[in-house]
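Workshop exercise sheet. Pairs work together: one partner reads the sequence aloud, the other fills in the structure field after running the prediction. Swap roles for the next sheet.
Pair: D.N. / O.F.
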Amino acid sequence: MKIKYTLLHEEKNTKARLGTIETNYGIVETPMFMPVGTRATVKMLTPEELYDMHSGVILANTYHLWLRPGEDLIQKAGGLHQFMNYHGPILTDSGGYQVFSLAKPKDITEEGVHFKSHIDGSKLFLTPEKSIEIQNKLDSDIAMSFDECPPASASYDYMKNSIERTLRWAERGKKVHANPRQSLFGIVQGGAYEDLRKFSAIETVKLDFDGYSIGGVANDNESKEDMYKAIDYSIPYLPKDKPRYLMGVGEPSDIIEGVIRGIDMFDCVLPTRIARHGNAFTKYGKMNIKNSKYKEDFTPIEEDCDCYTCQNYTKAYIRHLINVEEALGGRLLSIHNIRFLIRLTEQLRQAIKEDRVLEFREEFYKNYRD
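Structure field:
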């Protein structure tokens, strides 16, 4: 079956919404944070650990899985769920972000994008049709349309031409989408230009996708101001009865601001990436566990955190692991960081139920420092 979104409650003071998404692998609540499993694994973590963190939807990367091990092999394995043994919902991106980081503007054509493999430099060509074909074979629950990811610094004229091409690509991809169990999301682009975001949102909705994403907010060091503008300029034109996904965003403050503006779904590699470098999310901001002041600190990262790491290990021990480059250190911090963001969305859902999201934001910011 395709996903089914149900809007349960709209917070009376903001645009925040409480909802559920029914999938082939159970019902998940929104707002939600989705851990990223680029190569069919959330780095260093098992599916069982993700279940323990109350993870719902996770992401996998179309580009990387296309190159290795290949979509045909994954299809032979029974699809991505069977291949990676994750029995929860999976979303696959289109591969567009990786393609455009490897391609040059001259390589972007109406038909598709020419670029070179990051593995061996071989020439590759990805089209909207090919992206959807790969995702159909991966058999994820949610597939993403193939879009151009222009930098925020792009000129108005470039951005206008880009979103018009993205709309044509979205229509082409939708026409060849052939997996009846898989939902397909459209992507709204337009940078920080209000009229382009409005145009992109209205025209994308006309194509009638199963959900809608706001893209172009995490690929060029955009300012927070531009990110929030992109959301504010897009949300009024997206339907209330379908999920809204802000792509590539995982800073705690940005999740709160996104929820207040009406976003339901978030994803980011940040929690596992910073973990590998010895950093942890806390209610006071990021903690660098390598700091010498934690050498003899035999308390958990956060006293009130319910994650496996905080229930069993101390800062001193994790600091030791990171400093001697033991992989367990990165694993333990990844568990904490992902659970931190999932807990944050759980707390936001409760605040929405009680119509006190603005109060929650104020309380959070009293302590938190980016």
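Discussion prompt: Residues 11 and 352 are 5 Å apart (CA to CA). What would you look at next?
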